[in-house]
Write a structure and sequence with these properties.
14% strand, binds zinc ion, 20 helices, five-stranded parallel sheet, four-stranded antiparallel sheet, alpha/beta, single chain
Length: 570
């Protein structure tokens, strides 16, 4: 048996995620994890909330909570909503938990021993009234590039330029609004990425053969531009304390590690959390000297995260010179946009995971977001496309096939799998077509081609409808009941096979089908001859028609939601 470690980019703690976040990391990772488990592989799918940094502190302040309480609540919310969407994490950890503290401090210590960390003096904005430094988003002011008056310390939302807080004109504190501000010297730790640049390039050269173009091109763009040494500490209270030899580092008592240093380490930290909670061994997943050699590590992320996963995190891992497992395949996604613009968490623009589930069952979203995954380029969500995917694929093709044959078996064969007769020419053609189709689907799933996988699955559903159309059991039953029995038995088994093949995409509907038809091997991927796979439901076994699997989306609903969520620009 082979093993696969799967991680999806850590959702940030400041609120429920929108559908774009879901489509670009967690959902495709879940589909892949479910597929691999069905294939009988040992899967560990790890995710966690990313809880440090100024946005978390500011969101907590806006909510009138201390940051620990805020993160506790938001983590619980994100965990619940992810479960409701069927995201099958083996562990959903927290970057603020103890294992990540220990590991982050360990990496910093080792990197310093390797000569890759040094203290430098920085100029930082200091608020005299607040008696503290104002890193990143704690300071706003006028953009030096475009004169926008509310530019944030790390970036101008108007012109998009990345900023340094000291560049702002007429800066003010986001905490108090005070303009009583000066620039002071402060010490920070720097990770000397320039010294590991060659090692990272060699590693990318050696490993990127199987990465998608999107991932590889972003990695080389950053390497070709040249890496810079990066500050990995901040003047904040909420975060991982900076230690030296196990004690607070002198001069760093009021500083913590920068969120971008500790967040990717939480992939390991969350695995330790899982191991501690379940009495398992985490090192066989992460330490190549402890068995983590016979496994594939696959990461899922949006394209904005690729540089951190191909350059920054490898700088930490490779720089340590310790035997850590590095990523084998990086699957990156473009943006799922909201009509012409972007989904926005801060502006609550678009549909968010909680609102989505209030409208419709998770499978409908899961299907649309995988069938339209933003793989080759950015894609735009529209209600019309969503309606079309649900109605034409799920309701008209899969739902129609399953309900039609189950109802027919109920009314004409007393609710059991009919016996008698033997497969004929039509069935042999169906088996051959299915075999080709399943091989295609399996290959696309292994390659993590999400859209092509959904297309291959839909093509398999279509085969069933075509078969029923030609075989016409409703005609056969009048003249040749044995023949009708063969058709119905074949089609019922095919519905059961669809449940297994569809389960990674639409696990809730798959379970409904399996339950109604008595499919006992739902979580297993077909690997044998199709003719054998289609004998799982034995003659005489009781079956029922599942309740309606997918309700069609009406035009009135589309109109209502467009109005409510502010869909298409007028
Ligand atoms: Zn600007």
């Amino acid at each position: 048996m082979t093993r696969v470690l799967i991680t999806s980019a850590l959702p940030y703690i400041n609120g429920i995620k929108h559908l774009g976040n879901l489509a670009g990391s967690m959902l495709p990772a879940d589909v892949f994890a479910r597929f691999k488990r069905a294939r009988g592989e040992e899967v560990l799918y790890i995710c966690a909330t990313d809880e440090h940094g100024t946005p978390a502190e500011l969101a907590a302040a806006a909510a009138g909570q201390d940051v620990r309480t805020y993160c506790d609540e938001q983590h619980a919310l994100q965990k619940a909503i992810s479960a409701a969407f069927g995201l099958s994490f083996d562990w959903f950890g927290r970057s603020s938990n103890a294992p990540n503290h220990r590991l982050t401090q360990h990496f910093a210590q080792v990197l310093e021993e390797r000569g890759l960390i040094e203290e430098r003096t920085d100029k930082m904005v200091y608020s005299i009234d607040d008696r503290r430094f104002l890193p990143d988003r704690y300071v706003e002011g006028t953009c030096p590039h475009c004169a926008f008056p509310k530019a944030r310390g790390d970036q101008c939302d108007n012109c998009g330029n990345l900023l340094d807080p000291v560049d702002l004109i007429d800066p003010y504190s986001v905490i108090s609004g005070s303009r009583n501000i000066e620039v002071r010297d402060t010490r920070h730790l720097y990770l000397l990425q320039t010294r590991v640049e060659e090692r990272i390039r060699a590693w990318v050269d050696a490993n990127s053969e199987n990465w998608p173009n999107l991932t590889r091109s972003i990695a080389y763009k950053h390497l070709d531009e040249g890496l810079i040494d990066r500050g990995i500490t901040r003047d904040l209270e909420w975060g991982i304390p900076v230690l030296k030899d196990g004690a607070p580092r002198p001069g760093f008592e009021n500083k913590v590690f920068y969120v971008w240093f500790d967040a990717p380490i939480e992939y390991i930290g969350a695995t330790v959390e899982w191991a501690e909670a379940q009495g398992k061994d985490w090192e066989r997943w992460w330490r190549t000297d402890k068995g983590a050699t016979d496994l594939e590590y696959v990461q899922f992320m949006g394209k904005d995260n690729v540089a951190f996963h191909t350059v920054s995190f490898p700088a930490t891992i490779l720089g340590s010179e310790e035997p850590w497992k590095t990523v084998d395949r990086l699957k990156a996604f473009n943006w799922l946009n909201w009509y012409g613009g972007k989904f926005s968490t801060s502006e609550r623009r678009g549909v968010f995971m909680d609102a989505a589930l209030d409208l419709l069952p998770p499978d409908l979203w899961r299907w649309y977001l995988t069938a339209n995954a933003p793989e080759g380029s950015d894609t735009a969500f529209t209600w019309e496309q969503f309606q079309s995917a649900v109605n034409k694929d799920l309701a008209d093709v899969l739902g129609n096939f399953v309900n039609r044959i189950a109802k027919f078996a109920e009314s004409k064969f007393g609710g059991v799998v009919p016996e008698g007769g033997a497969p004929g020419e039509l069935e042999r053609k169906l088996f051959a077509d299915l075999e080709t189709g399943i091989a295609d689907l399996t290959a696309q799933m292994e390659a993590i081609e999400v859209r092509k996988s959904a297309q291959a699955l839909r093509a398999l559903w279509v085969l069933g409808n075509e078969y029923l159309q030609v075989a016409a059991p409703w005609t056969a039953i009048k003249t040749d009941p044995e023949r009708a029995a063969v058709i119905v038995r074949t089609a019922l088994n095919l519905a059961g096979l669809y449940a297994r093949l569809s389960a990674p995409f639409i696990p809730f509907a798959a379970e409904k089908i399996a339950e109604a038809l008595g499919v006992s091997n739902l979580a297993s991927w077909p690997s044998g001859r199709v003719a054998d796979e289609l004998t799982v439901l034995s003659p005489g076994a009781a079956i029922g028609a599942p309740e309606v699997l997918f309700r069609k989306i009406e035009d009135e609903q589309v109109a209502e939601w467009t109005e409510r969520f502010g869909g298409a620009p007028a």
